Amino acid sequence: MVQTDPEFFPKSAKGQSPKILWIGCADSRIPESTILGLKPGEVFVHRNIANIITPTDINSLSVIEFAVAHLKVEHILVCGHTSCGGVNAALGNTRLGLLDIWLQPMRQLRMEHTDELEKMDTQGDKTLRLSQYNILRSLEVLRMNPTVIDAMKERNLELHGVIYHVENGKLEVVESSEDEHKLKKRLAAFTTQQAA
Length: 196
Fold this sequence. Notes:
5 strands, lyase
């Protein structure tokens, strides 16, 4: 690195100003900076098993708060992937200890979409579809976060969902738009104000 970019380390030592918060899976095959073609320091990262976001996980909430309120990221990117062990575990019924608790949100999605998932022919198709539903749920959770709501309103923070295909390295966008009616209901229910 010193040979190809002599200023990299001195610049890094001065601080960080990433534009992207990446929320992804802990899977070792999903290196966010490499996937995005960026250098260390350009992406703030939170990773966990199956990239699950819940409204009560203090770990992810702390990362989101720091990235959005203090680093002022411009984009939050939630990334799932094909061949995800966590998603496959949620699709199965093997007891996994502590992971059973962690995967409850994913199992709930499985339960909600059982009819659709059972009609699919391959495990890969089921994994992909449940990964997409997980991303959509994660984006819903983010849209209910007061810090995220404020940043979307005040400085146009953008939320994105993608699936990384480990078999070919492609990123697929997961569409997650809100219609005006749903947006108004969400903002009415989750926008908070400082107490006087």
